[in-house]
Write a structure and sequence with these properties.
The protein is built from nine helices and 14 strands. The chain is an alpha/beta fold and 328 residues long. It folds into two domains: 141 residues, NAD(P)-binding Rossmann-like Domain (Rossmann fold), CATH 3.40.50; 174 residues, Dihydrodipicolinate Reductase, domain 2, CATH 3.30.360. The strands form two sheets. Strands 8-9-10-7-11-12-13-14 form an eight-stranded mixed sheet, with helices on one face. It binds NADP nicotinamide-adenine-dinucleotide phosphate. NADP nicotinamide-adenine-dinucleotide phosphate binds next to helix 1 and helix 4.
Length: 328
């Protein structure tokens, strides 16, 4: 079987983890890596066994042999990087948060339709077997009607003014980097846009949110979500329904363990599913499955849900008064 030839744009921290998963995936070929400097591209390519190295993102998009491009640049670059790839007819897997705001994502979707390419936000959480098991429990009614979700995602990152997390012009801040996971979980389980959104954030001296708290109200269900990167918390998720509840342990978005309980807190079932490589293999396989079936959108990470999440985050930032330089 022919392998899918992957190109990677941006050679930072997550690109490295992704390349590890790619190298261990039989149906993937580590084909080309692009960086803003040729030197970095060459070093990355040789470390992970990519055949080609490009000193600009554009050159990689112009390589006719690239089947699918993984965009691993900071949030504020996703919009222009995606448009560049799509304009060259390339399929795209773009890191989260997919854009700075919903307007940008709507524009991307227009181009996706025009050029008839595959596009997916790299929401790896939703492709992982543990999360899919949780969804299966919910969809088959094991906890009854979902009435409450509580999830937090914190990651203590020592202050560094040069980090993309702290830079407003990179689309920094906790919401777009971390909060996107609990919001995605809520939108996935309860169905897109809530009836009400109330959000508050602590904005740091660099002008981005260093932690935030968001409450969402859906018909019959309430949600409480927190994220931040100057503290450490447990990073758990709890999904509670009329007949029981589910817990996802530390780092809920990438956990290999989830537990199903009844209303009396008796453990009914556990899902303990260790990663085969490092957890990114599942989104890679999902992309391959879509490409092989000619699907332009993954049912695991559908466009309308990514759009709903972006709209929720727009509303939160509107309430805080946070506008990024590159969206003005
Ligand atoms: N799925 C996950 O688990 C996960 C985890 C972490 C991050 N992410 C996402 O992945 C993306 C990248 O995060 P990261 O942690 O890998 O960031 P990072 O280490 O800072 O790397 C980002 C890369 O993007 C390129 N880049 C292009 N324009 C840039 C600019 N103006 N400033 C800095 N770098 C720029 C650089 O590559 P070149 O110099 O080679 O061009 C840089 O190495 C973000 O969207 C983030 O949300 C996902």
């Amino acid at each position: 079987m022919e392998k899918h030839k992957w190109g990677i744009i941006g050679t930072g921290a997550i690109a490295r983890k992704f390349a590890e998963a790619l190298s261990g995936t039989e149906t993937a070929e580590c084909y080309a890596a692009a960086s803003r400097t040729l030197e970095k591209a060459k070093a990355f390519a040789s470390e992970y066994g990519f055949r080609k190295a490009y000193g600009s993102y554009r050159e990689l998009t112009e390589d006719p042999d690239v089947d699918i491009i993984y965009i691993a640049t900071p949030m504020a670059s996703h919009f222009e990087d995606s448009l560049l790839c799509i304009s060259k007819g390339k399929n795209v897997l773009c890191e989260k948060s997919v854009t700075l705001n919903s307007r940008q994502f709507e524009q991307i979707l227009e181009e996706v339709r025009k050029h008839d390419v595959f596009f997916m936000e790299a929401m790896w959480m939703k492709c992982r077997p543990t999360y899919r098991k949780v969804k299966e429990w919910i969809d088959s009614g094991r906890i009854g009607e979902v009435r409450f979700i509580k999830a937090d995602f914190f990651n203590h990152v020592p202050y560094n003014a040069e980090s993309r997390l702290y830079k407003a012009d990179c689309g920094g801040g906790a919401m777009l980097d971390l909060g996107v996971y609990p919001i995605t979980m809520a939108a996935d389980i309860l169905g897109g846009i809530p009836d009400e959104t109330v959000s508050a954030a602590v904005i740091g001296k660099d002008g981005v949110d260093i932690n935030n708290t968001t409450l969402l109200k859906y018909a019959g269900a309430s949600v409480s979500l927190d994220s931040g990167f100057q503290l450490q918390c447990r990073n758990n998720a709890l999904i509670s329904g009329t007949d029981g509840y589910i817990t996802m342990g530390d780092w809920f978005h990438c956990t290999c363990e989830a537990y199903l309980y009844n209303r009396e807190s008796t453990l009914l079932e556990s899902a303990v599913i260790p990663d085969e490589i490092n957890g990114y293999e599942y989104e890679i396989r999902e992309v391959h499955r879509c490409l092989e079936n000619g699907e332009k959108e993954s049912p695991l990470v559908p466009h309308d849900e990514t759009l709903a999440v972006m709209r929720i985050m727009d509303e939160c930032r509107k309430q805080w008064g946070l506008v990024y330089p590159r969206e003005e």
